[in-house]
Amino acid sequence: MGRLEQTISRGNTLSAATIQVERAGYVVVQDLGRTGLGAIGISANGAGDQSSARLANTLVGNGDGAALIEIIASELMLKADSDLLIAVTGAAKAVEINSISHNTHETLVVLSGSTIFIPAPKSGQRTYLAINGKIQAPAMLGSVGPDSLLDFGQRLVSGMKLEIETQFSVGLLGSDFSLFRFNFPSPNYSSEIRLRATVGPDADRLKAGVAGLAGQFTVLPQSDHVGMRLSGVDLDLVVAGEILSRGVPIGAIEITPSGELIILLRGRLLTAGYPVVAVLTRSAIDQATQATPGTKISLEVVSMDVARRELAEKEESLGKLSLRVAQAFSTRGWKKLLSPEHASFNS
Amino acid sequence: MSNLIAEHICHEYGDSGILVDFTSATYEDRWQQAQALGDALRGSAEPGLLDVVSTYQNVFVSFNQLLASHKSIMDVIEKLIKSKPAPRVATVFNIPIAYGQEYGPHLEFVAKTCGLTPKQVIELHSGEEWTIRFIGSPVGAPFLDGPKIPVSIPRLTTPLARMIPGSVALSGFQTIIYNAPSPGGWQVIGRTPVQLFDLNQNPPVPYHPGDRIRFKPISQREWDAWSKPFHEVTL
Predict the structure, then answer these.
(1) What value does the CA radius of gyration of chain B take, rounded to a whole number of Å?
(2) Per-10-residue mean pLDDT for chain B, 235 residues long?
(3) CB A163 within 8 A of CB A265
(4) Which pLDDT value is given to residue A109?
(5) Position A17 confidence tier, pLDDT thresholds 50, 70, 90
(6) Domain range summary for chain B, segments of one domain joined by +
(7) Could you say which DSSP state residue B160 is in?
(8) Which of residues 44-63 of A touch B (CB under 8 A)?
């Protein structure tokens, strides 16, 4: 306890906390991306699994769009040089703090000097680590997230230091060391998933209409943040013909001339000329970005009403969680740790 | 353009998007109507609007479902189309370009495909103003109609991993300019030393759809005179 008391005496003013990167696989500083720049041909990019990223930030009192760490199909080991309040969401099943395993999808306290280890996920692709405060990282066009076309982004490499402007310190804990139990459900990533989609404008390019999307598709290894490639449909079932280039939504399911299916993800170009037979719902897009190569995907075509309702329910559940987080922070006298952008202020 | 309200169809496109398809009789009308609606939407300050991408005959709109809905955005679209927004006044940009050789490694291929000499391709390409039909990916690329060549140009069989910024390239009967070191599959016939995409400017590209570009061939000496070629500028 000696070290803890020492930490407490440091006080709790706004300070630049630092973390050191000890080991990093494919890890980047990320946020929700650049929206609204489609008219000048800038892709959205940002966290692949947006809802997991928003959840992580919400759990630590940050605004949804705060910078956080995205770990893609690999591991991350950090050493905290300051006290931190963190949350891990997405694919990782546990986070080890000084070799003690903790739950993901919870708010966790990390004491200065601790080692944080996030193992590579056994299933799923993307893990998010949010830290209370503001990760210092250069932004371009309003986002810290990588854009390969702009040649921009910050990848974490071993030996690197990250600075975080935070008001958190263990001194704030007082004698109440009991932590949080928000029990927000942590997702399961299976090797067979069902993705919801609405009918696209070119569904008639399939001879059977959207019914032509029945059956299972396999995620191919050539998939990336621009598009997820799926084993295709029988070309005999496709009506050929060009489509004039036009804007496409993230989640659009295109059929290429060779009959391959591509699900466009957040790095998609703004316009495309392949027929779009269906569009994933927003939460299905998040699910899709967690699918590893080899995953079997079946598509469930739903009405727009169902899709809208699903979206509203998702928002509502995140809003409710944000209120519980805000309440828990206030009860502990941590109100100042809540960002003015925290989702609880809009819920 | 006629005085009638532009014929169009609105589709719900995904759970937070809308696609407007203009169906007027002529290519030029459809394109102008799409561009005018795009501009009007971007200028509307309608809450919840995220992206507005207007192309040849379509406008794609994405919105934040917490602040807007398919219905609220479609209502705005109908209102704006009824107001018959006027097209922008066009600006003409003169863009210097070095054709061929190291600047345009695929000029020979393009010429051969058309049954022309490289010089004839250059004359066709630099002989007229080309209209910017829309701005797209990658990174603010202007999509131009032209040059008027006899044969449609195929894309590269293997796309280049990294285009040199400023590369001017053809595909089909169209030209684009690559502003950033992105991958690309079009045939590069020349390069401009001008940096068109500049993050210190708002907006980062100076041109709008409807503006026109005229390519001005420059010599090696003129190329060298550009003090800071775009390809040496780090984005």
Answers:
(1) 19
(2) 77 97 95 95 93 95 94 97 87 95 96 97 97 92 94 88 94 94 92 90 89 95 72 43
(3) no
(4) 92
(5) very high
(6) 8-82, 92-232
(7) B
(8) 44
B62 pairs with which residues across the strands? B17, B51
Beta-carbon pairs below 8 A across chains A and B: 132
Beta carbons of B19 and A201 less than 8 Å apart: yes
**What pTM value is reported for the model?**
0.90
Q: Tell me the pLDDT of chain A averaged across its residues.
A: 90
Q: How far is CA A121 from the centre of its chain?
A: 14
How far is Cα A194 from Cα B6, in angstroms, rounded to an integer?
A: 40
- Predicted confidence band of residue A13 (pLDDT cuts 50, 70, 90): low
Q: Report how far residue B22's alpha carbon sits from residue B1's, in angstroms, rounded to the nearest whole number.
A: 13
ipTM of the complex: 0.89
**CB contact B143 to A (< 8 Å):** yes
Give the range among A195-204, A265-274, B105-114 with minimum mean pLDDT.
Answer: A265-274
Hey, are the CB atoms on A245 and B204 less than 8 Å from each other? no
Q: Which of A42, A271, A280 sits opposite B139 (nearest CB)?
A: A42
User: In CATH, which of 3.30.420.10, 2.40.100.10, 1.10.3720.10, 2.60.120.560 is domain B92-232?
Assistant: 2.40.100.10
Structural domains present in chain A = 2-186+332-346 (no CATH), 192-302 (2.40.100.10)
Tell me the three-class secondary structure of chain A, residue by residue: CHHHHHHHCCCCCCEEEEEEEEEEEEEEEECCCCCCCHHHCCCCCCCCCHHHHHHHHHHCCCECCCCEEEEEEEEEEEEECCCEEEEEEECCCEEEECCEEEECCCEEEECCCCEEEECCCCCCCEEEEEECCEECCCCECCECCCECCCCECCECCCCCEEEEEECCCHHHHCCCCCCCCCCCCCCCCCCEEEEEEEECCCHHHECCHHHHHCCEEEECCCCCCCEEEECCCCHHHECCCCCCCEECCCCEEEECCCCCEEEECCCCCCEECCCEEEEECHHHHHHHHCCCCCCEEEEEECCHHHHHHHHHHHHHHHHHHHHHHHHHHHHCCCHHHCCCCEHHHHC
Question: Is residue B60 within 8 angstroms of chain A, CB to CB?
Answer: yes
CATH classification of B8-82 is 3.90.1230.10, yes or no?
A: no
Of the candidates B2, B225, B6, B224, the residue with the CA atom closest to the CA atom of residue B102 = B224
Task: Please say whether the beta carbons of A310 and A283 come within 8 A.
Answer: yes
What is the pLDDT confidence band of residue A225, given thresholds at 50, 70 and 90? very high
Residue pair B177/B192 in contact by the 8 Å Cβ criterion: yes
- The first and second tokens of residue B118, run together, are 């490289």
- Residue B13 class from Cβ within 10 Å (0-12 exposed, 13-18 middle, 19+ buried)? buried
Size (chain A), residues: 347
Do B8-82 and B92-232 show the same overall fold?
no
Whether A246 and B137 lie within 8 Å, measured CB to CB: no
Nearest residue, CB atoms, B180 vs list A151, A280, A307: A151
